[in-house]
Amino acid sequence: MAMEACSDLEVDINGKKTIFLNKKVICKFSETLRKLLGKTTCSSNGNNIKVIFKDFPGGAESFELVTRFCYSNGHFTVVPSNLVLFHCAAKFMEVTTVLEQTEKCIEEIRYWTWSEVLLGLKQCQELETSSDTDSLAAKLMDALVEKLCLVTEASPSSAASACSPSPDSSSFRFSCDSKSTESFKNSSSRIPWWFDEVLVLSPGLVKTFLKLMITGRFDNLTITKFLFYYQKVKFCSASCNEKREILETTIDTLYVLDRSCVPYKSLFGVLRLAFGLNINKGVMNKLELMIGQQLDQATLDNLLVPSPLKSSHLYYVNLVLRFAKAFLDEAKKGSQLKKVARLVDQYIAEVAPDPFLKPSKFLSLLMLIPDSARESHEDIYRAIDMYLEAHAGLTNGEQLNLIRTLSYDKLSTESRAHILRNAKFQAIQTQDVQQQHKQLILQVEKVDTSGDNEKLKEHIEGIQWRVMELERACLKMQTQMEVIKKRSKSTSRGSNRSLPTLCS
Questions:
Q1: Nearest CA among 273, 354, 279 for reference residue 317
Q2: By three-state DSSP, how is residue 13 classified?
Q3: Which whole number is the average pLDDT over 349-363?
Q4: Rounded to a whole number, what is the largest CA-CA distance in the chain?
Q5: Which residues neighbour 42 within 8 Å (Cβ) at sequence distance 6 or greater?
Q6: C-alpha span between 372 and 375 (Å, rounded)
Q7: C-beta separation of 448 from 422 below 8 A
């Protein structure tokens, strides 16, 4: 070949391959090499001129395409299978004649077959990311989604024929062995034909693919199915970074879909996978909102999420608090709210024995649901009893704060009858109120009388008001205790199980 007969130019492509060329032939078409070499000639000792490209797009394969074009005097045809490599290489080498052909071919992308478009996208993701490949990939992706939208109503066989999918789609092989993967193999006949076809795309291109499907108002249920299929299959062999990207794409996409098309149970599956992957905080917030806003569909097992590794307590209580807040922010009422109230009460009873659960966190759980949503306080008061059993070192004030969440009217006759039998609750309220009363009297006696008289007067009036409030509270508690004593005498002894004292 002439290429070999007169080779005075040596080109190193990304350190992987060296190609020998005729400078005159290649510079006739390549503006980049003309600028680079200028009037350079071979050295007197006969050594070739050497050019090193460290970041040539597509490597030696795309470079050779351009050189063949140059050596054929511009008679090399651009087709869909070589467009991406040809276009990026011609851009790099500034071969105007090639660019004219590739630009014309790009305008006809929408007329390509399904397999040609998919191959072009695969080539784009194999090249180094650049504005050229990104722009080309966007056009190819538009064409792919357009073709998919045209055949969504067709049967798998007719759709495959219409879009000419790659012939080896049926020979797809899963990258790992697991029960979940086997289930996908067994159900392959029930999923759309294109699910396996699109698996060749990178997480970044899949993200663009999904956005276009949503923009094109593609069926939300089908998008959801594809998301979980793609996630589960890809997770088998993905790196940590790839797993993070896949999950973030999954969550971001699910967040904008119709919630009725998103299986609630699957959201908890995504949540479990997200732990330990350092998912973006904003994305995690979206997932927690999706779960929390539908909390009435959850079960106790769903909520019993182990706490993060650095936490001492057993369960991830803060997560449940955020779920409930998201649910309550939706201002849901009626049966949904009551169902969540029962669920939260079950959760409180489950976490109460945890010796590492702080009283402030336990109190937040007790006060989480509006009292109007609870028809009974039986579960609540048993949970408090268990919590106090596991936390013997609580201060009088901390115990009082927990007991104040109980409502006497929402306890059974049996519970009321045995309130006074539990030594853990005896006289907690009265002692606490009396102590606060004494402290306020001391404040009045020790108050600083210097300064503005008007401010001093307001300060003393404020303290006096708090004293009056405490006196009323103490009187109310004493009255309630008398009522409890009278009622307990008229009821049977019942069981000997420890039960808590109540407050107003």
A1: 354
A2: strand
A3: 94
A4: 120
A5: 8, 48, 49
A6: 7
A7: no
478, 431 contact by CB (below 8 A): no
Does the pLDDT value for residue 294 go beyond 50? yes
Map tokens 């993060």 to a residue.
308
Alpha-carbon gap, residue 394 to 428, rounded angstroms: 12
Lowest mean pLDDT among 225-239, 265-279, 401-415, 484-498: 484-498
Contact predicate 166/118, CB 8 Å: yes
Region class of 114: left (phi > 0), else alpha (psi between -120 and 50), else beta: alpha
Number of H helices, E strands in the chain: 25, 3
Tokens representing 327 are 């649910």
Q: What percent of the chain has pLDDT over 70?
A: 71
Structure tokens at 305: 């999420």
Q: Which of 135, 11, 140 has the alpha carbon at shortest distance from 66?
A: 11
Q: Tell me what pLDDT residue 375 has.
A: 87
What is the torsional sign of CA 269, 277, 207, 55? negative
Residue with tokens 């992957």: 277
Tokens 């009278």, located at residue: 486
Neighbours of 77 (CB within 10 A): 10
